[in-house]
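Table 4 source record.
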Amino acid sequence: MLRYQSNLPRLPVPKFEETLAKYLNTVKPLLSEAEYQKTEASVKEFVSSGMAEKLQQRLVAKANDPNVLNWLDDWWLDAAYLGYRDPVVIYVSYFYLYKDDKLRRLPAQRAAAVTTAALEFKKQVVENTLEPEYAKGEPLCMDRYKYMFSNCRIPKKPADENAMYDPAKNTHILVIRKNKFYVVDTVHNGRQLTTGELEYQFQRVYDAAGFTKGVGFGALTADNRDNWADNRELLLAAHPENKNLLEKIESASFVVCLDDYSPVTRDESCRACWHGDGRNRFFDKPCQFIIYENGKAGFMGEHAMMDGTATCRLNEYVCDAVAKAQPASVQANTTLPAPSELQFQINSQVDQAVRAAEARFDQLIANHDLTVLAFQGFGKNLIKKFKTSPDGFVQMVIQLGYYKMFGTCRPTYESAQTRKFQLGRTETSRTVSQDSLDFARIMESNAPNEQKIAAFRKAIKTQGAYMGQCVNAHGVDRHLFGLKKSLNADEAVPAIFTDPTYAYSSHWYLSTSQLSSEYFDGYGWGQVVNDGFGVAYMIKNNGLSFNVASVKDLEIDGKKYVNGTHHFKQCLEDAANELGELLSTEIKPQAKL
């Protein structure tokens, strides 16, 4: 798995002159002429004052330090994740919704099949036999896989910490049912439990949990990180045994949440994976498999130590392995130790803290909306006939949909992976360009089809070129972030970073990313700013999926958009249909036999 690691190139530091030129190019379509001139002046001052050169030298020195594998890694982990104080649920965590399994409708049966497959994947990670991933023939960094199992985020002030346990020694999983936490060891007398035995153990959890709900400890992990840090200390202080119980949770291979909810619609199912009831979860664990009462299933991931590409591979493996396996029969084995409940000792302070966290979670969820556009008109197979990038096509659908709703284009984030470099994670591909703005305007005009298609081709070429630069770590955002982080505490902040454009151009009204699987019925996360949308999309062979999330009472620039999530969903559908119809005019009809 790690055989290419030491040979992967280091994350480069681009030339600051190139980055600043790109920066001006990316902000121009977002600004008025007066705003642009002010931003251009701040960039020129940054260079003429010598600060750009000085900060660049410091950044290059860090990148060249033999003890530093990746100049961005520690800064980014703190700024984007561990130092982030808002709740991880909604704002940071992400989910996958699986397609239904018609052969395993009983929840204990499906939980056992999913667990068996996840343990097979874990074995490959622990033994380093998992084949590395590649992009266009180049191996990708596999370092993040070490954080997948027996790992946990720990709330601390001013920044959280990460706890790693030996996954080879910690063979237990955490099972949550009716807010009660149970430990199930997946190995007995040196042998991994069979799928039938695991089903027996899950059924024992169902029986032990009964019908009454326990204290909603999971809600503590759904809270503001500072609140959770304080409340974790309260929980530890309430009784000495609580420390050992928490460590059992933190060291578990992964979590299996047995929910008492039966979602029916795609929207209901995605919302259930996105956040659930906030109690029957432990949101600090990187991997939580969720099984619903009616046999539906999904996954929720904590984002700090690992990006979605790794867990997407895990979940595709799980779904594929389950699909290929014959359903197992339950195997009653009374020699197996019964699942043990983790019974925390609590006092009135902890009880009050849990109730307050539950109330804050319920309010947070009530303020958010999510809906899924399962577009069945066409997918990757037809888009390729348009002789265009499927990802670029969908990005233009999103831009056109946004323009339809708001009459303008605003800063848009698309995730670009930089895993071809050691410890590489992501760069921001800025979708909005002058060409994408021109495309949206022309599409909404009465221009002839030839002009619209030409505008689309130009916009998608620009989008693809910038994405290519980002994958090679030559985007704007991470480099500017690194230059700013290279400032000393006693140095004045250069005008480029105090200019309103710097904040505005990275205020992601549209936060977008693609992960695709034919096994998933949904994939998504929340918006990153409360006047924006989170748009996770999948490009399937014969369909497209858009998960749209935002606050319920969306307000942008003083204007309120009631039902904004659903309105934007409709605009995306209209945009996809229009663009598909437009490009279909270029495809010659098949000659009849």
